[in-house]
Specification:
The complex is a heterotrimer of chains A (about 150), B (about 650) and C (about 180). Chain B is of the alpha+beta class and about 650 residues long. In chain B, about 60% of the residues lie in helices and about 10% in strands. In chain B, helix 6 runs antiparallel to helix 12. The two termini of chain B are about 55 Å apart. Classes of the chains: A mainly alpha (about 150), B alpha+beta (about 650), C alpha/beta (about 180).
């Protein structure tokens, strides 16, 4: 029952103009401000069509959020302030770029950790590999030649 | 009648699958030659049974038999025939049956083409394939039966999701699944080797063609999915780091690492443990991808069949296959001893670096994809990890990988002189530096580096060929003779590496794309990306199962007409869905891209893009797949295993 | 020895991951794990200040003195039709319900209420949808419980079901009565 209900909600939320593209009249007149608004929008998740940013999504809510972002950019708010405003209302879930805080240290640290682990394993494995015998000295090479020539 | 036959064939397949799983493995364990030789026949039999079952399902779709629930839910009588056929795999049950089909096809392929393998290895490989297969067939039969009947049958079906009624997306699942499932063969080789207790150079050679084949398909499947997203979804994006996309990338990354790692096993009998782990890991990622998409756990536009109950079944299946093989790995891997030695700076060393970097990228993508799920489970925190994270973390790992990719092939085996190798690439480095400088004025740092990397990769590939043919160091004719005599593997390598360079160039160039959203009335012109776009008219179009609104756009440059684009918005009445059909005109070097949006005030909202080098993204993937296919054709991969002449067989 | 431990790591990792996935699946079936749900940021916080027009309309200062249910809905919202009987039943029990019509035209709202029953003591309209964004609403219908001090105590996303009322709403209504 709950699943059916959720499916219905999902249908409702998706039944909007999910494939409408945005409107030219939305763009801010100042190109730098518009570019900043787009950059912020790319970092924000559309809560309806959840795997798109609000810049790409055609949902009504995405359009509303785009308006809000542009309004705040035109008012001079910093990127941080705009994102914080939205996080206050929708939580960290609205950020496509996760914050850097104790709960995400492992996430952001994963490239370094992975490299270190890989290098560590490779190093470890090398240590336990049979090593090549040291090269022969001149006297030993002489002896070898004698043996081979007989 | 036909659906019942299909159902019976599926059940028969399960029975044969059990036989295929048990008999050859038992035979190999007891060294009973007759039991081992039953393997190919069982594999072929199982394949025919599942193929028959799949054919019955496809037939039900083609004749629009709505008494079959699966057909009623996913097809429609007005649908074009080709989509009736491709819709067979465009839903959960059908796609699981398709998985089973490819898995049994792999078993049959090993039966048919594995004549060069020693019989115990072949028996074990087929047995392991049977084990993996029977699990999925049971899942299909018991929890995802496509042959369930619906009585009374509805007058017409619910229609296939309009997004899937498209040539690209119709072919994307079969090619992708063949890639995913194809990695079951190297997996089976790895498990067989662990059961046998040894891996030798010959194993490295035998596993390579199967890995290459799966890799080619997976590359093609992923590229096709990305290309579809680009031309269908309407905003020119082609990769979203969506969890399901990541799930397809993971086996590709480890599969590439596997391909290269197997080389070292063959040449040096080293990296055995690593290679076996990669083989198990790649198929494990394939399986996990299947689970995640169908379980409802992943938050993705792709995810279908959100059914936790089915999810538990698949999880159990996965636990057995993946957990079982990794446990076997933990217990038996110590028996695999390395014998070859090599210096850190050598081709083997470069391949180890390649492994480390690819696996690090894999770890990062896995972490990013799984983090939100585990953060919610363990910390109760709701996070999301999207494209900005992946772009920021994967690129720094990819850069050293690209750098090493051109150096590796010119290093010699066992012990190499890095300085001398770099000298062979001096001209590639020079061109890359020039490209970086030129791009610096037109693009940001990341795309700039990526373009330079692309030049480095493509020219590095040429440098590899130049090195092998001793170009300019011996008479040209002699170089020519060497070129012709080069093994297909060498050609394949060079072509595949260059292909990656082409793809990277395409991706980097997207940062130079121009796009604009405009409201035009018929007759008006917009100027985007150096082209003039004129909306000629807006009109209605009727399709077989849709009604559409279309715009005619004339694109010109410097006064002369370049092309005419006609993007549409299609409305499918049965499913009540509207889709946009973007129209793209490409000349191989740039894409002109138009999307039709809402109509207002007598005009229409249009989204117009000029994407330089965009086609290279998928063209490069095609080149990579071709390179893989050429490598596959190398004669050396068909060398058989030496067999003892049966003593006393002559005695009559 | 070290080598053996290292070789066990993949297996151990998969076991841990598998346990995690099993937990996720079980909770998904229970309904406590939903990767698509967006948790509310205003639970246990004061109602975001607002003042909406309507018939008669209301503002955040009116949500005081007794526990009040606030329901965001729209005439174009299909699940809202589904939850109408549940809301009417709540009204019959004497629970005050205030409605906010989200992005809806007044005559469409009136027609909807005439068709499906009007459970609302007061009705406001949020045509631009900005107040809903302040509440963290991301779709309709959504239902909230405000306590007598004007603190948000409970939220339900999707159509209100009798189960949700019995298990979630009623205990809180009793607690804050």
């Amino acid at each position: 029952m709950i699943r059916l209900a959720l499916a219905l909600v999902a249908f409702l939320l998706l039944a909007g103009p999910a494939f409408a593209i945005s409107d030219p009249s939305e763009a801010l007149p100042n190109p730098q401000q518009e570019a900043r608004a787009v950059a912020i929008g790319r970092q924000l998740r559309c809560l309806v069509c959840q795997n798109e940013s609000i810049e790409d999504s055609g949902a009504d809510l995405a359009r509303d959020l785009r308006h809000i972002v542009r309004q705040q950019v035109a008012e001079g708010k910093t990127n941080r302030q705009v994102i914080d405003w939205l996080v206050a209302r929708y939580g960290n879930f609205v950020r496509l770029r996760p914050p850097f805080e104790p709960s995400t240290y492992l996430l952001w640290g994963s490239p370094v950790l992975a490299l270190a682990a890989g290098a560590g394993v490779a190093f470890f494995a090398r240590r336990s590999r049979p090593t090549a015998p040291p090269p022969l000295s001149a006297a030993e090479q002489q002896r070898l030649r004698q043996i081979l020539d007989t | 009648m036909i659906p019942e036959l299909g159902h019976f064939a599926l059940a028969l397949g399960v029975a044969l699958g059990f036989a295929q799983a048990i008999i050859p493995l038992w035979g190999a364990h007891r060294r009973d030659i007759r039991l081992m030789q039953a393997a190919p026949a069982l594999a072929l039999g199982q394949f025919f049974a599942i193929a028959a079952s799949f054919a019955c399902l496809a037939w039900s779709n083609v004749v629009s038999d709505f008494s079959v629930l699966n057909v009623a839910e996913n097809s429609n009588s007005l649908e074009p025939l080709v989509y009736k056929i491709t819709g067979t795999w465009g839903n959960h049950e059908g796609s699981i049956l398709f998985w089973c089909l490819i898995l049994t096809l792999c078993g049959a392929a090993v039966a048919a083409f594995g004549g060069n393998l020693p019989s115990s290895l072949r028996a074990r490989v087929i047995g392991v394939l049977g084990l993996a297969g029977v699990g999925f067939q049971l899942f299909c039969l018991l929890a995802s039966d496509p042959f369930v009947r619906l009585w009374p049958p509805p007058v017409d079906g619910r229609d296939l999701n309009p997004l899937l009624q498209d040539p690209g997306l119709a072919m994307h699942p079969p090619i992708l699944y063949t890639g995913y499932v194809g990695f079951a063969v190297p997996f089976a080789f790895a498990v067989a080797a662990l059961l046998e207790g040894r891996i030798d150079a010959a194993w490295g050679r035998w596993v390579r063609p199967w890995t290459l084949a799966a890799w080619c398909f997976l590359t093609g499947g992923i590229a096709l999915g990305s290309w579809w997203a680009y031309y269908e979804l309407g905003w020119g994006g082609f990769w979203f780091w969506d969890p399901v996309e990541n799930a397809s990338l993971l086996p590709w990354l480890t599969g590439t690492a596997l391909l290269h790692s197997a080389l070292v096993v063959e040449k040096r009998e080293a990296l055995k443990v690593w290679t076996v782990l990669l083989a198990i890991g790649t198929f494990s990622f394939s399986l996990s991808g299947t689970f995640l998409v169908r379980s409802g756990i992943l938050n993705s536009v792709h995810a279908f069949a959100n059914d936790p109950a089915r999810g538990v079944f698949i999880l159990a299946l996965l636990g057995l296959v993946i957990g079982g093989s990794l446990l076997l790995f933990a217990l038996r891997a110590p028996m695999l001893s390395a014998t070859g030695i090599f210096a850190p700076v050598s081709r083997e060393g470069a391949l180890v670096l390649n492994n480390i970097l690819l696996c690090s990228i894999t770890a990062v993508v896995t972490t990013g994809t799984m983090y939100p799920l585990f953060a919610e489970l363990l910390l109760g925190e709701k996070l999301s990890v999207g494209a900005p994270f992946f772009n920021a973390t994967v690129f720094p790992l990819a850069v050293p990988l690209f750098a090493a990719m051109s150096v590796g092939p010119v290093l010699s085996w066992k012990r190499a002189d890095l300085g001398a190798a770099l000298m062979k690439l001096w001209w590639a480095a020079l061109v890359a530096a020039v490209v970086a400088l030129v791009m610096a004025t037109r693009a940001r740092l990341l795309p700039d580096l990526a373009m330079a990397a692309s030049a480095w990769l493509i020219l590095g590939a040429f440098a590899d060929i130049a090195e092998r043919t001793r170009l300019f160091r011996i008479p040209l004719a002699a170089s020519g003779r060497r070129l012709i005599g080069l093994s297909r593997s060498s050609f394949g390598t060079v072509i595949a590496h260059a292909g990656l360079g082409v793809t990277v160039a395409g991706i980097a160039a997207m940062s130079l794309a121009s796009s604009s959203i405009v409201l035009l009335k018929p007759g008006q012109v917009a100027h985007v990306g150096g082209y003039d776009w004129q909306l000629a008219d807006l009109h209605d179009v009727a399709g077989p199962n849709y009604m559409a609104r279309a715009a005619t756009i004339r694109v010109s440059r410097a006064g002369s007409l370049v092309t005419i684009l006609a993007p549409e918005r299609r409305n499918f009445p049965v499913q009540q869905i509207t889709t946009t059909e973007a129209k793209i005109s490409t000349n191989g070097l740039r894409d002109l891209y138009a999307v039709l949006g809402d109509e207002r005030d007598g005009g229409a909202v249009l989204r117009l893009h000029v994407n330089p080098l965009a086609p290279w993204i998928w063209f490069g993937a095609l080149i990579m797949a071709i390179g893989g296919a050429i490598s596959l054709a190398d004669r050396r991969l068909r060398v058989g295993a030496p067999t003892r002449k049966p003593v006393g067989a002559v005695a009559a | 020895m070290n080598r053996r431990i290292l070789l066990m790591v993949p297996f151990a990792g998969v076991l841990v991951a598998g346990a995690g996935f099993l937990a996720m699946l079980e909770r998904e079936q229970e309904g406590t794990f939903d990767p698509r749900a967006v948790p509310s940021q205003i639970i246990n916080k004061p109602v975001p200040p607002f003042d909406l027009p309507g018939s008669p309309g209301f503002s955040s200062t009116d949500l005081r003195g007794r526990p009040i249910v606030v329901n965001f809905f729209a005439s174009w919202c299909i699940p809202c039709v589904e939850e109408a009987p549940v809301l009417m039943a709540l009204k019959a029990q004497g629970v005050p319900i205030y409605g906010i019509a989200y992005k809806d035209k007044p005559d469409a709202t009136a027609a909807f209420l005439a068709r499906n029953g009007d459970p609302y003591e007061r009705l406001a309209r949020d045509e631009p949808g900005r107040v809903a964004i302040d509440w963290g609403v991301y779709g309709v219908p959504e239902t909230y419980l405000i306590d007598p001090q004007g603190i948000v105590r409970w939220r339900h996303v999707g159509p209100l079901t009798q189960d949700a009322v019995t298990a979630g709403l009623q205990p809180l209504l009793r607690r804050y009565a």
